[in-house]
Amino acid sequence: MLILECPCCGVKAEETELAPGGEAHLKRFGPGSSDEEFEAYMFARKNPKGVHFERWRHAYGCGKWFLAARCTATLEVFGTYPAQTTEPPAELIAKIKAKRPDWKGWK
Amino acid sequence: MSARLQKGGRLIDRSARMEFSFNGKKMQGLRGDTLASALLANDQLLVGRSFKYHRPRGIVASGPEEPNALVALGTGARYEPNQRVTTTELFDGLTSASQNHWPSLEFDIGAVNNKLARFLPAGFYYKTFIHPRSAWKHLFEPVIRRSAGLGKPPEEADADHYEYTYGHCDILIAGGGIAGLQAALVAGASGAKVLVLEQTAHWGGRAPVDGDIIDGKPAEDWVRNALQALEAMENVTLRARSMVSGVYDHGYVLAEERIADHTPGDGRPRKRLWRIRAATVIAATGALERPLSFAGNDIPGVMLAAAARDYAVNFAVSPGEHTVVVTNNDDAYRTAITLKEYGLQVTVIDARPAPVGELPSRARALGIRIETGRGIIKVKGGKRVTGVSIGLQAGEGGAVEDIACDAVAMSGGWSPVVHLWSHCGGKLVWDADRALFRPDAARPPLNHDGSALVWPLGAANGALTADAALRDAVEQARLAVQSLGLDAGAAEAAIADPVEEGAILPVWIMPASAGIELKSKMWLDFQNDVKVSDVQLAAREGYVSVEHTKRYTTLGMATDQGKLSNINGLAVLADALSEEIPRVGTTTFRPPYTPVTIGALAGEARGDIFQPLRKTPMHDWHLAQGAYMEPVGLWQRPYTYPRAGETHEQAVNREVVNTRDRLGLLDASTLGKIIVKGPDAGKFLDMLYTNVMSNLGVGKCRYGLMCNEQGFLSDDGVVIRIAEDTWLCHTTSGGADRIHAWMEDWLQCEWWDWQVYTANVTEQYGQIAVVGPNARKLLEKIGGMDVSKEALPFMTFKDGELGGFPVRVHRISFSGELSYEIAVPASHALAFWELLYSEGQEFGLQTYGTEGLHVLRAEKGFIMIGDETDGTVIPQDLNLDWAISKKKEDFLGKRGQQRTFLAAKDRWKLVGFESLDGSVIPDGAYVIAAGTNEYGFRNAQGRITSTYYSPALKKGIAMGLLLNGPARMGEVVEFTAMTGGVSAQAKVVDPVFYDKDGEKQNV
Lengths: 107, 1003
Ligand SMILES: [Zn+2]
Prior knowledge:
The complex is a heterodimer. In chain A, about 15% of the residues lie in helices and about 30% in strands.
């Protein structure tokens, strides 16, 4: 039962208020894309033991989607941020690197 | 024999006698007894049979770790199987019965399995799966089924009720022994909000039984003072009978409070499930004593040494006249001393060559006979202990002496209860000197911010003696308090008189070099009948992982989850593999700590309030009319409105015919309604739907399809354009929330710069379909806006007024008839419905339900999401190419549909089927193709997706998918029956069975 702070309304939301949305920062590939690009967009997902970026929706709260960086092994949450971005905020990346020096980065 | 002693018993009230029964036999106990102590007081040693061999089983423990003594409690609506007698508080009138025996506990035919033990080795179940196949079906399965299973499931609905409650605290303390109470004093003094949960009805844990002296007084006095001090703190809450079952992510804690187990029928909830959010958790959960593995250690009368002490001190129950205490550590001497002081005969068998601690010295001084360097070679007896043979622990099993006795108290050392530490990933370290796993402080389970989530202390942290436990409790509780940024303050630290204990000698097999004969009688897991020989066999057969060994032998997989057997089994496995214990690892502890009853988990969500119920404004009206309701998502909708004497089938046919011939009324309020508004709304809908919505004229309706990114059809419905920048999307009844979330996902996460606003207004409107040739006559009668063909042509809508109600009238049809779908504000919907119903009678109006709706749409060949679609169907499969834009560069699903498999020419496509004999083809039936596949099943070339009796055609009609279907009109195909074989033949036809040109709806 994770607790994630919704960056939109500021509520520390419990998992029962949230709907999961899978991996964050996927790039959509539509018509004109190659089979490989489409396959990667549709099916290839990271499954790290460690730092991971995810989509969550404050479904039973303000209704807004947001993104979260957390460790899948220890459940430590590094931070949450609005969904309207194509990459994690620089300060969040710096914070994770400080905590996990071996981390290879988000891409 | 076990019996009630004449004096003592700190928890019982000798003036309050209680009647209870076991297997129909009347017995007497005392207030304060557990069922276990009361059974022992009545010399009822035999209480059950083991799972596999049906061996006689007695009470082994005195707490939640009990593996054997599971009984069925109560009768009828209060019957509950698999209850541990050791945690069941006695009450007057309690009825109990033993389990897993036939025909009786004393004479059990299943015990023949015991004789067949060598044919039922470790991995027996898996081995029988392998070969021969027929043996499993005809030989093994029937035998296993008859003998497997413990309690029988209840037959009546539970008469009790259960409830949830929510707790929020800074520090949750699990365990109310002296360590837990000391931690609570520290935490309480810091001002933190503290919740202390104790699983038993009593505070203080083992210390009062062990005779510890704290701050110069008996432990019991200190416990009383500590409780008084804690009760005086407003920020501290104490709850007894509350078992913490699990610690989950970020400090979510579940606990089960037993409220009325011991006062059945008094009106209170039976149990209360606590759902707690704790900023941090203290695990003061104590330790569990381990059995010793010697031959016959499962015979009734053999119990844990501390349990024997508990029964004597707490309940004044002696385990026997003469108890042999067998041990590898000093703690068991407390049991020997206690029993001796009660005037009972005691002999100590100590595996250690030269025990030197304070306790052995005291025992010697009391004149107790102590045999050192010895072990039990085997226990004698069948349904109760009659004696033991002893010999050298270091030997192979040669007996040097037989000792007559009627009880054996064993101690193989103690294992900290690390469950709560481990649930969220806390790691363990093997303490070889003391032969135990304890929490590794360097690798704790983590909270959301990366800090430690659980603070183990006292015996749970490996501090097994009272003075060590109290010191550890203060130290760890201070760290817990500081982790919350609070000041631990100056809570008084209690000091217990130290008792010098000698070192434990790890003993995993007794005697150390026992042969196979003895090892086949050494039980590790009493409930699941796993012996030392089974684990060794698993090791020989190549099982090197403890997790695999567990599953192969079923060690630790019984209802006690290996509380007594895990460490012993692990040590035996390590020995068999010639590995160090920590290298073999330990199993993962998962919640719950002890079983939580399903009733408590369900809480009040039973019967009518099992899940939320969504009602349309006309819900009660439907019920009053005797409608037969069916669930559609969380909605309840009328399936049909049967009249007196009608079957549902007859009622549906009547409703369909009446709608086609005269006038039908349908409650369509559940239809999803989502407003999409904004400068970019048209562009957005063009991405969402397969066809173009941006060019829809204001006042017009258009049918649209939505696909997921894979290209599969996900939802459909009519879209209307209300204003230049505003559309309203109708979705399927079950799809409104999902589609609204889908829209929001794309708007928030992909096209966040598009100016679009969405609102799910499904429940703001009632929606009523007025359907049939007389529909216009009814609306003209109630009066208001012009509903003529000219003013309101097919596939248009208008806002206005009808019969004095504000309405939006849509000329859309899901039946093929002249049809008006009328949206009206929800608050007016029932009144408007009643007006239509009464004014429509002269035109032959009848209501119809969802089944009639289905028949009407199937006769017209209209698809239904969830029938014609199943997540693998693209619109092209349903011949809906006309609703897929060729011009749009992009829409959700377009790229997916270009994949070779979906773009292939030879797909299963929608057709109609008419059965040759007029019967209704079974739903889901496959269209058979020639030959068989690699598994020997008939090949298929299609399947039925919708199938009904058509009143219009007076025969069975069906829709379905068929390989290259549209090119095969007129062909006769065969279907499978539910029972196998060919059930029906049908002709492939156009799926539009009725009014192919659509003349009836366009009038
Ligand atoms: Zn929010």
